[in-house]
Fold each of these.
Amino acid sequence: MDKLRKHIEAIIAISDEEFEFVKPFFTYKRVKKHQYLTQEGDTVTFEYLILSGVFRMFYLDNDGKEYIVQFAGENWWMADYQAYFKDKKATLNIVCMEDAEVLCLTLHGRETLSVESHKMEHFFRVKLTNGYVALQRRIISLLSSSPQQRYEEFGRLYPHLMQRIPKKYIAEYLGVSRETLSRLYSNSKV
Amino acid sequence: MDKLRKHIEAIIAISDEEFEFVKPFFTYKRVKKHQYLTQEGDTVTFEYLILSGVFRMFYLDNDGKEYIVQFAGENWWMADYQAYFKDKKATLNIVCMEDAEVLCLTLHGRETLSVESHKMEHFFRVKLTNGYVALQRRIISLLSSSPQQRYEEFGRLYPHLMQRIPKKYIAEYLGVSRETLSRLYSNSKV
């Protein structure tokens, strides 16, 4: 729970007493590589704060083709938010790519924390703001960028993920073939 | 300002006194068709709550090709949020497609309202949550859907916009040619 406090205090200072109030809303969970946190069709009870490990979130079409919406590593929050916030069945899958530890928070917990604590509502608003900006940037990138630009942007924004994620999935995330990605890799090393 | 109060009260009830505190943070502006609220390279001082009219937000690449990130009508909030929140120059353009009225809010105003009023922080968090879910959905749609599916989803989510926006721009938003869009239109009327 030390990591949780540090994570919150990166945004807003809280007292010991305030943190004692926050703690019980989170439950700790270990996740093994290849294990799913969410599968399409599930009821989405939790969102997850990642303490260690890496996940990928993807959409699977009717032909079994996988489309990666997002990767997430330490200190990222992750959920099929449409399902989580709107009480719908999951349309996305979240799978563990490296043994991981996460903290789980229910929507009821999130809303109670926000109502009871102005500081926690502030914390969640700031996190959402950053998430919103990242998604707006991803949309622009998907609409307009060349594979080369998308590759460079990914490397610039997420250098630590770049080294830990198999190339196959990076290619999928960028929407390019394995061959194109290999070419981009070797170009960038020249 | 009646519209503003109604818009806030769709999320959370506020007293007359609370509304009197909120009001001065917003400034009213009329916008003519074809007028820009933001152009690439601008400093982004405001986000906008649209009271009437329709806008489109787009990215322009080096070849002058336009990529539509979003349309927005009544009761939507709109800004180049990366620039607004992160104090960067705009990379997006926002242009008016129908004579409009908007309310303008600075980042300083937004943050002050949130710090001073737990209710307003709640209001902004809920709006961001909805916005975040909409962007996550748009990413999935861009990654995986066929033109037919994207067209149907757009019609289902935004029926009022569908009728007011020239087909040319809807085709651009969906990432299809004018010819494909015409075919989708006629198919859906059979």
Amino acid sequence: QETVCIFGTGDFGRSLAFKMLQCNYSIVFGSRNPQKSSLLPHGAEIFSYSEAAQKSDIIIIAVHREHYDFLKELTEVLKGKILVDISNNLKINQYPESNAEYLAHLVPGAHIVKAFNTISAWALQSGTLDASRQVFVCGNDSHAKQRVMDIVRTLGLTPLDQGSLMAAKEIENYPLQLFPMWKFPFYLSAILCVFFFFYCVIRDIIYPYVNSKKDITFRLAISIPNRIFPIAALTLLALVYLPGVIAAILQLYRGTKYRRFPDWLDHWMLCRKQLGLVALGFAFLHVLYTLVIPIRYYVRWTLKNRTITQATAKTQDLFSTSTAWLSDSYVALGILGFFLFVLLGITSLPSVSNMVNWREFRFVQSKLGYLTLILCTAHTLVYGGKRFLSPASLIWYLPSAYVIALIIPCTVLVIKFILILPCIDKTLTRIRQGWE
Amino acid sequence: QETVCIFGTGDFGRSLAFKMLQCNYSIVFGSRNPQKSSLLPHGAEIFSYSEAAQKSDIIIIAVHREHYDFLKELTEVLKGKILVDISNNLKINQYPESNAEYLAHLVPGAHIVKAFNTISAWALQSGTLDASRQVFVCGNDSHAKQRVMDIVRTLGLTPLDQGSLMAAKEIENYPLQLFPMWKFPFYLSAILCVFFFFYCVIRDIIYPYVNSKKDITFRLAISIPNRIFPIAALTLLALVYLPGVIAAILQLYRGTKYRRFPDWLDHWMLCRKQLGLVALGFAFLHVLYTLVIPIRYYVRWTLKNRTITQATAKTQDLFSTSTAWLSDSYVALGILGFFLFVLLGITSLPSVSNMVNWREFRFVQSKLGYLTLILCTAHTLVYGGKRFLSPASLIWYLPSAYVIALIIPCTVLVIKFILILPCIDKTLTRIRQGWE
Amino acid sequence: QETVCIFGTGDFGRSLAFKMLQCNYSIVFGSRNPQKSSLLPHGAEIFSYSEAAQKSDIIIIAVHREHYDFLKELTEVLKGKILVDISNNLKINQYPESNAEYLAHLVPGAHIVKAFNTISAWALQSGTLDASRQVFVCGNDSHAKQRVMDIVRTLGLTPLDQGSLMAAKEIENYPLQLFPMWKFPFYLSAILCVFFFFYCVIRDIIYPYVNSKKDITFRLAISIPNRIFPIAALTLLALVYLPGVIAAILQLYRGTKYRRFPDWLDHWMLCRKQLGLVALGFAFLHVLYTLVIPIRYYVRWTLKNRTITQATAKTQDLFSTSTAWLSDSYVALGILGFFLFVLLGITSLPSVSNMVNWREFRFVQSKLGYLTLILCTAHTLVYGGKRFLSPASLIWYLPSAYVIALIIPCTVLVIKFILILPCIDKTLTRIRQGWE
Ligand SMILES: Cc1cc2nc3c(=O)[nH]c(=O)nc-3n(C[C@H](O)[C@H](O)[C@H](O)COP(=O)(O)OP(=O)(O)OC[C@H]3O[C@@H](n4cnc5c(N)ncnc54)[C@H](O)[C@@H]3O)c2cc1C
Ligand SMILES: Cc1cc2nc3c(=O)[nH]c(=O)nc-3n(C[C@H](O)[C@H](O)[C@H](O)COP(=O)(O)OP(=O)(O)OC[C@H]3O[C@@H](n4cnc5c(N)ncnc54)[C@H](O)[C@@H]3O)c2cc1C
Ligand SMILES: Cc1cc2nc3c(=O)[nH]c(=O)nc-3n(C[C@H](O)[C@H](O)[C@H](O)COP(=O)(O)OP(=O)(O)OC[C@H]3O[C@@H](n4cnc5c(N)ncnc54)[C@H](O)[C@@H]3O)c2cc1C
Ligand SMILES: NC(=O)c1ccc[n+]([C@@H]2O[C@H](COP(=O)([O-])OP(=O)(O)OC[C@H]3O[C@@H](n4cnc5c(N)ncnc54)[C@H](OP(=O)(O)O)[C@@H]3O)[C@@H](O)[C@H]2O)c1
Ligand SMILES: NC(=O)c1ccc[n+]([C@@H]2O[C@H](COP(=O)([O-])OP(=O)(O)OC[C@H]3O[C@@H](n4cnc5c(N)ncnc54)[C@H](OP(=O)(O)O)[C@@H]3O)[C@@H](O)[C@H]2O)c1
Ligand SMILES: NC(=O)c1ccc[n+]([C@@H]2O[C@H](COP(=O)([O-])OP(=O)(O)OC[C@H]3O[C@@H](n4cnc5c(N)ncnc54)[C@H](OP(=O)(O)O)[C@@H]3O)[C@@H](O)[C@H]2O)c1
Ligand SMILES: CCCCCCCCCCCCCCCC(=O)OC[C@H](COP(=O)(O)O)OC(=O)CCCCCCCCCCCCCCC
Ligand SMILES: CCCCCCCCCCCCCCCC(=O)OC[C@H](COP(=O)(O)O)OC(=O)CCCCCCCCCCCCCCC
Ligand SMILES: CCCCCCCCCCCCCCCC(=O)OC[C@H](COP(=O)(O)O)OC(=O)CCCCCCCCCCCCCCC
Ligand code: HEM
Ligand code: HEM
Ligand code: HEM
């Protein structure tokens, strides 16, 4: 039975003690006023800071950084001990140096290990460790780090060694982050949506109003979103595969893979996953919006009135096989594209991607990914069909929105097609050799 | 090459030996009749119990608890050895003490470790470890526990330290459980469904039958479920966020977070995840039932006949912009609500939630969760639209079912709105400080 | 700070060094021409092969197997050291013996450990370890293996002990595999699709063309796939549960569970998960294809014209309650079946199945699985409804495709029903006892 000392009887100190007692550790608290309180977990002892420090060689500092000063006076007692810094800040990069490094300066003789700061006191106490169980650990002394990692593992958490104490800054920033990799995709898609929103409002709402005084603002609820979302999905999907193509051109041009890509390209390549998932979200919305079309009052009303008009006039449309072909094929292409899209999404799930090897992962993400892009682009092209680029569909000189949406995907596909021509492909493969 | 001894040549003993031999252990069986059988895995040796025990200091007891008595006689030989208890029972809490503790009484000098009982013999043998790979381990001697956990890890399984031998009872009950956390959500939703089933049958089937002798029992297949399921979804979703609101009121009233919540509230808060997922299931069903509406014979027939009637009478309905707005908006709200609902579901997947930090997890679950609730409630309110609370929609003094369904969500939203008023929120934040 | 030596300054050597330096190891390169290059990660030293070998007792051989010969001359220096073989081949089973065993022959005195071959250089360097983080490790010396596994763990990867060096062959083949377990399901479903494609083309396209010269080839886009996919889904679903039934009959016949199943049955049983997921994919496609039915031009045209015809003739169809019942029930059955199908899919996700115990997993997979099969079969039966087996639906003596599709599911369900009759079930349970 190992004894661990915890400095500070605050929320986190108590929760951690509670959990560690469950896992068979014996706990000694160090406190400013060492009196047993009913809040302390049953089984823990409590002493003054200096007394408590002598009972164990691992001391967890469950105190805010602002109150670390008292540790300076304990330097003697803490010499050679393992001090675990678990503190968090309120803002990213709040202090010039990380809390752990600050602690290392305060108590020179001790081995400082950063850990546990990503775990919430409430989660420890209530047992609902639903969010991350990963505990990032760093420190300069590898033996000390090992000891702490053993404790982490015993508590049922997953320790992740992050190297030397220099990593503490990053570890302290981690719990303050809110989806950093999703920021770029998010803003990008917001811009796309806003742009296409105004574009479609002008073409589909303002123009009819100006031209024929028809109030069709109700289109804002479904028709307009069902233009914006698929266009955003298609554009984002193309933007997922664009950086790979740019990288290839760059490597071909440079003749080597050993020069770093420009920063913007690097960052872009690292958030392709997030871009792709956002695209999937938009595609999902597009599918839902499309499937409710026949339920809409407007659609039912239109269909009914058209039928009544024809019935009254006793005329019937002729069946057009080519329209049937076009209409059925673009829908079928959309369905197949969406299906592969969902497959890409499923293989992005961390637990699934962890089960496949590199070859399989890249087969799905790269090969099936391009197939998805092809199918979705074809879906839009065939949807455009006969009207595509016809001058009649220009409104105030503006082409239909989907025509604009097709520019990037078609560009990506054309360049990719050139890149896989045998002669170019061979050069590229030779350059890239050794990466996988 | 470590030697491990297994007592008992039954199914589990053999399967475990088979797996351990694959991982380079050498295996010695102890048996009542020590003769090589063709069933024993190739490479294992077999001896009498007492002989076998001398060959190794780790002994796995692959024998049913009912036959443990013979171990008593081996007390001498087993002194200081590590005995691994892997036994299961047939019923939860079948015996007053756990099997492992019983074994500890029988063989006082040995170090007892509980492990492996959650793994099935068939899974070990066939290699399809599809269900849990987690092996819960407990024991009083930490060195012995460590040895066993090393073996577990070598076999490709995940050891989870559960503390002292007192945890054995819980570990033994674990494989006998059938979704314990899902019981309450399941029964609750069953009750909801039954109640609303009868409510809707009375309003939508019995009343028309009594009033106008119309046989519309076929509504039982789709129309009625498509009332019950969304109502259950909405109610359950509201019940997910109700306990948080109650907890806040309680904490405000008490002025401290340090008094425990009543048991029912605690339990309720711990199964919110399950409640939410069941709600998602119902919402999914609602969406499917809604999307098939235009395929239904009844709907097609109605639409056709209405058109024919109007065509014959040569009248056309006027287009109502306000109806178009209402119809499109409630559908759009439903789609957006469902989309966020699915996002909540995705972040509940263990592998995804393990990748996000607390702040991100609570952002999705709490902020987006409330947004989902708002959208779904708005969807229902706008669906009600003009008919909402109109006396004409009362049938036998009963309001429409969705009016009842709106009570809890609206209550939750109103209280939550009060709680986030700056003055109250500040007090609450002060009280809760330190939990995350 | 541990020192690790890496032989070879190629892509993999450098990437690994880069990662290990981040994790606080100190790195020494061995190279043919030991001169510092700007490509080498900052902080690493470089020597000749023999010099470098003396600096550490762990040496990672980041050299292609084809160039191993120079190691022979270093035999003396390498005596007693741990050599980590990380090499891959270009083809499965390219050499008669595995690279690691070949290395062991070349350098007799060293401890060979196979590891790291599943990790891509690019992934190490860029940090996007999206595919598998699992590192399979094998070797004859357990201490050496332990050392390597510690390194693996420190790098944030998951080591999996695979036993002795004999496992190296399999480990080397692993990264060259492309979904081996999915091959059989894939080919099977391809065959099914092709067969039913021609079957349906004959019945639904060629026959009308021959008979009445109608060009309805546009059906190839949606109508025909929407026959093929659900039929494939249903058949595959039945084939998931067929082997269990065959196994039961075999065990009943043999009276024991201890005789191995024939190989084909074994293999079939091991790829039931994949079969089931492919079936889910087809079912998903069927659902999408079904939900777009009302959007199709052909369907709208047909409905409109039928309405106009009736309106002109001033007739109205009578409402048929039995048709309403049949139509609504088969759709409802389909929806419920699909819902359970999706649940089965969700529990197959590795992270979810890892959270449930055996009893729960088998409850979902076996009980709910059969319920899914029953619902889907009933869906098809009721869809057939009155036309089912009616001679009028025979075309060129061929029955409707779904009639053929029903053969296997019905057979499975009937046999299963017989197997769970109390008398037979008791015998079977007795035979199988001890497996879980
Ligand atoms: C729904 C959806 C989900 C997605 N999920 C993910 C995800 O989970 N993870 C993810 O990473 N992406 C994901 N993506 C993004 C995308 O599918 C992948 O990034 C895909 O691999 C890009 O393929 P590519 O052929 O353009 O890349 P590449 O052509 O491979 O990219 C070109 C450059 O990248 C380098 N490179 C990239 N990977 C490797 C490698 N393994 N070995 C050697 N060199 C390499 C090459 O050197 C080359 O310079 C997702 C996309 C979508 C639409
Ligand atoms: C589809 C779906 C899926 C869901 N999946 C999950 C899931 O995977 N996991 C899950 O837990 N819930 C899940 N839920 C339930 C729900 O979303 C969460 O419980 C949500 O966090 C509740 O938010 P709240 O704002 O009401 O909670 P809170 O307002 O946080 O609850 C109030 C009380 O809880 C305490 N509390 C709760 N969490 C913390 C914390 N981290 N730190 C400090 N104090 C805390 C506070 O002290 C306070 O007393 C799911 C719901 C749905 C609909
Ligand atoms: C969408 C979908 C997803 C699926 N995902 C999975 C998956 O993730 N993993 C998976 O394995 N299957 C999966 N399946 C396949 C299928 O659901 C399971 O294989 C299911 O357990 C078969 O049930 P059964 O009753 O026919 O098997 P059984 O009747 O159990 O099979 C009969 C034989 O198997 C032996 N047996 C099998 N399992 C056990 C056990 N645990 N203990 C003792 N004996 C056993 C019995 O001895 C018996 O001889 C999936 C199927 C679908 C449709
Ligand atoms: N709460 C969480 O969820 C969480 C999560 C990760 C990390 N952390 C980190 O854990 C540390 C403690 O957090 P906490 O929530 O436990 O805080 P807390 O409840 O405010 O407790 C802080 C404790 O520090 C001690 N202390 C020593 N000198 C002090 C001084 N001059 N003024 C005030 N307190 C002093 C006090 O214990 P005595 O009275 O016994 O001396 C006090 O109980 C923080 O660094 C925090 O960032 C917390
Ligand atoms: N790249 C990957 O993604 C990856 C993944 C898993 C496994 N692997 C394995 O790692 C090993 C190395 O792959 P790599 O991609 O790093 O290959 P590489 O870039 O071609 O490097 C091979 C290195 O081997 C050394 N070498 C020694 N004798 C040699 C000789 N006679 N001819 C050529 N080179 C010689 C060279 O280093 P010096 O010039 O310094 O002597 C050279 O840099 C291979 O076995 C490969 O299968 C690679
Ligand atoms: N099967 C599973 O999937 C599984 C999973 C987890 C845990 N377990 C646990 O593993 C233990 C063994 O299960 P099992 O399925 O292997 O049972 P089993 O097939 O019935 O084997 C029990 C073995 O116990 C030995 N034994 C010693 N004294 C005995 C006596 N008086 N009567 C009968 N047998 C005696 C026998 O081996 P000798 O003839 O060689 O003496 C016999 O083969 C049980 O505690 C069970 O709860 C099983
Ligand atoms: C029908 C299609 C349904 C698609 C649903 C829409 C999906 C929208 C995608 C957005 C997902 C964002 C998750 C955010 C959580 C997060 O940040 O999670 C954060 C983590 C880690 O992120 P970092 O890489 O930034 O660290 O990301 C993940 O792990 C993302 C995994 C997401 C997987 C999405 C899987 C979609 C699966 C679809 C399966 C569906 C079948 C459906 C069939 C109908
Ligand atoms: C289209 C939406 C599809 C929604 C499908 C319906 C979902 C129904 C939810 C019920 C799931 C129950 C799983 C039971 C297994 C279990 O008990 O699992 C048990 C485990 C552990 O349970 P405990 O917390 O009780 O220990 O639970 C889980 O881990 C639950 C994770 C479930 C995650 C559900 C995710 C839904 C994801 C939807 C992704 C979809 C994209 C779809 C887009 C169209
Ligand atoms: C709406 C339903 C949506 C269904 C979507 C279609 C699913 C198609 C299934 C094919 C999945 C193949 C994955 C291939 C990756 C792989 O090879 O992965 C390989 C790994 C490991 O394979 P091995 O067992 O062969 O080693 O397999 C898996 O882990 C498979 C897990 C797949 C889980 C599928 C889950 C479907 C979940 C649906 C959730 C949805 C809710 C949707 C609600 C609307
Ligand atoms: C189930 C799958 C799908 C179906 C049934 C489907 C159906 C449709 C339909 C009916 C339209 C015409 C909408 C209208 O009339 O306003 C359309 C348009 C479009 N779809 Fe899809 N689609 C699917 C998937 C996708 C996917 C995955 C993408 C791309 C990522 C996509 C991209 C588009 C685009 C860009 C348009 C043109 C939008 C416009 O300007 O009106 N679709 N789709
Ligand atoms: C894709 C998403 C959705 C769509 C298209 C949709 C559509 C509809 C439609 C068409 C109706 C009217 C049904 C009828 O006429 O009988 C309805 C009713 C309703 N919906 Fe939704 N909905 C969606 C999502 C949701 C969600 C997520 C919830 C709540 C959790 C919800 C809750 C309700 C409720 C409570 C009703 C009233 C049921 C009644 O009494 O008839 N819906 N929805
Ligand atoms: C949301 C769920 C489902 C709905 C709404 C649905 C609906 C339908 C509809 C409308 C048809 C008739 C198609 C036609 O007229 O051509 C059909 C046929 C069929 N469905 Fe489903 N279904 C569902 C799920 C399933 C599932 C899960 C399966 C089986 C795995 C299945 C198997 C079949 C089969 C075998 C047919 C007959 C195909 C033929 O020969 O035409 N369905 N379904």
